[in-house]
Amino acid sequence: MAEFSGNIAILGSGNIGTSLAKGLVKSNFSSPGQISLTRRNIDALSVFSEQGFDVSVDNAAVVAKADIIVLSVLPQQLNSLLEQISGVIDVNKHLVISVASGVSCADIRAKLSPGLQVVRAMPNTAIAIGQSMTCVATDNAEDTNLQQVIRMFETVGSAVKINEDLMTSATALCACGIAFFLRAIRAASQGGVEIGFHAEDALKMAVQTAKGAADLLLQMQSHPEQEIDKVTSPKGCTIAGLNEMEHNGFSSSLIKGIKLSATKAGELYKKE
Question: CATH number of the domain at 171-265, out of 1.20.1250.20, 1.10.3730.10, 3.40.50.620, 1.10.3720.10?
Answer without folding.
Answer: 1.10.3730.10
